[in-house]
Amino acid sequence: MREILNVDRQRPADSMIAEASSILKAGGIVAYPTETFYGLGADGQNEEAIKRIFLIKGRNFKNPISVIIGDANDVRGLVEEIPEFALYLMERFWPGALTIIFKASPDVSHLLTAGTGKIGIRLSSHPVAAALAIKLGHPITATSANLSGRPECTRAGDVIQDIGDQIDAVIDAGQTPGGSGSTVIDVTSEPPAILREGVIPKHRLTNSPFV
Questions:
Q1: Is 100 helix (H, G, I), strand (E, B) or coil?
Q2: What is the CATH number of domain 3-206?
């Protein structure tokens, strides 16, 4: 691993975020904190970098990878349509631990969709994850920073121990909350399907005028 970037969780230094962004732009892999666990970040528009994510984790290429965006408006460049219910969810729960699955635009990498034609998207509430996505200006992969089948990491030290020799940098902002992962809801089906109940409980999503 090339470097450890120590940052303040609430106010990450611009210089550190810029350095991490430069690594991503060059095709590198950066582990970063989210509101749940540490995530493994690659530029979501760089096919070779995305392939590295699969290889590092030992992840099946048939398993899609979701992304984190820097602004809610960035959704429009990644999806074919934004259903009314998705707009409701975005307005109510973003930024936050909610991954929404949309019909992907043809421009989205097939590695991210795993041939499903769908893409999972989240606007993170973690200051570091948000700052990194904004600085990069592209979606960042949001899979957990651990070997597939191993426990998710809540500390940078755990990431380093697990996969540190295979990534280019880790942004250390202290321990993340852990617990449940992001809640995942697929808005391409009718009715929408909750694929994983995580931080945001099911009743908060289904208690709406759309379900």
A1: strand
A2: 3.90.870.10
